Amino acid sequence: MNIDFLIIGQGLAGSLLARELMQRNCKVMVIDGGRENASRIAAGLINPVTGMRFVKSTDVDILLPAAKGFYSRLSGYFQQPFYLEKPMLRIFCSEKEAINCLNRLDDPDYQSYLGEFVQSTSVGNNLVTPFGFLEQYQTGYLLIRPLLSCLKNFFISQNSYKLADINYRDIQLKPSLRWQDLSPGQIIFCEGYHAINNPWFSWLPFQPVKGEILTLEHQAELPDKILNYGNWLIPLNNHQIRIGATFDRENLDTRPTDLGKDQLLNALEQILPNLKHTTQINHQANIRPSTQDRHPFIGHHPRYRQLAIFNGFGAKGSLQIPWHSQRLADALLNGVPLPNSCDIQRHDATHFPG
After folding, report:
1. What is the CATH number of the domain that holds 23?
2. Residue 91 lies in a domain
3. Do residues 310 and 265 both lie within one domain?
4. Is residue 96 part of a domain?
5. Is the domain of 199 the same as that of 333?
6. Are residues 149 and 200 located together in one domain of the fold?
């Protein structure tokens, strides 16, 4: 069967790219092994201003409207919400963080994202804030698991989904591109951290990071806001929260650990001591496909132009993937050059073995 694009992986990257290409009348097949991936476990947080230095995410003024528009159209099509906008309380962990925040408040580029700095040692709901806090705007989170389920069912209804594991040796490059009974114009790898084992793209400087997340039940009163205190807390409803996430670059496996659990609970207790007594509902772990330069990996293989990659979004996939899927579609269908910041050509001279 002849198709335009074979997409490997049905995480958020592969799913949104497939949807974008299908919206542009391309014949697409999505291949997925059906196992848990980092997208399905991720919190889906969108936070325009991050880090100890309180810096706007790169190109957030472009990425955020694109993401909101993309998710809004999907919500309209599937008749259910996917992106939930909710303000975030940024609780400062040090005096230095608070000073960095104060320096941003006078910057007009930040005013639509930041509220008033509050210098207080505590706030309602027993929230401990020794260095003060600030409310951030235009924050929220994506319901990734329901979105991916809806998109999977959509792909199935369009005969555009196949449950299968990919063996790289089964991909035939010559005389024409082929996998099993499919003859795609191009194959696009959206495999998450598994790309470190991909024979065509493993040369890219990935920096995968393991993260663990807890889902807890509680009986305390909490603000109906996302909390950011070095870790994050998302209120799912009046009595359930998710907290995360750990960062582990050494132990790249998907096993939840007692160490990760203790780290998350100890950090939570520092700001919400009244939440000592919680019931664990779930404990999950997976591996983020982060990159050394913190920019995505998008583009064609330097030698085999019929192979491409769409990967490396790390912890900011919910924000970055919609806009970048549109840029890759422009490049694939109309020959529009990719932005230099995400094009894998930036690593050809230093990392491609030739």
Report:
1. 3.50.50.60
2. no
3. no
4. no
5. yes
6. yes
pLDDT of residue 347: 97
Q: Which two tokens stand for residue 288?
A: 């983020």
Considering the domain architecture, whether residues 150 and 268 belong to the same structural domain is answered as no
Q: Is the pTM for the entire model greater than 0.85?
A: yes
pLDDT, residue 123, reads 65
What's the CA gap between 265 and 278, in Å, rounded?
Answer: 10
Phi, psi (rounded to 5 degrees) for 262: -65, -40
